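Following up on my earlier thread - several people asked me to post the actual chain instead of describing it. Fair enough. Here it is, all 188 residues.
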Amino acid sequence: MNMKRKDYFNIPNMMGYFRIIMIPVFITLYLRADSVREYYLALGALCLSLITDFFDGKIARHFDMITPFGKILDPVADKLTQFAIIFVLLFQHTLMLPFMILFVIKELYMGLMGLYLLKKEIVYGAKWYGKACTMIVDLGCVLLLLLPEMKQLYANMAIWVLIIFALFSLGMYIRFHISLLSHKVSSH
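Reply from S.P.:
Thanks for posting it. Predicted structure:
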């Protein structure tokens, strides 16, 4: 990885740093919120981060500013932001605790397996079930953020949907990795 110092500070990577900086801002605003208006202010800070996420990749591709570091920074910022959202929701919904534990286990598994496969020179893209899980988790969490006064029964139903999709995605990735590795071993 032969990167110049300026590559770490190109516009898309600066936007990634900004997203990481916005995480404690969002957490602080959300946890200190005493009214729906203050919850929406925290949500506004989160939206600013998400808009930045939307544009950093477009700018990187359009202006040929894609860097190996940026390919790591972007998903790290994504996962840290997701974790921050799950973390703050834990203070309103106790059922978020098992989901948060599952989220951490899933992401650790995916990260460690990704490193292991990379070492074996096996590279693959995200699978449909991983993308679907991310979309469902993001939508479910945004719903819970947008409706801070939602009845607990409905919030718990939404959280159970998140848990089921995360378990499904994790199971499918484990199955895929077992198949991938057993095929790779048998072909040698």
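The chain is about 80% helix and 0% strand. That should answer part of your original question.
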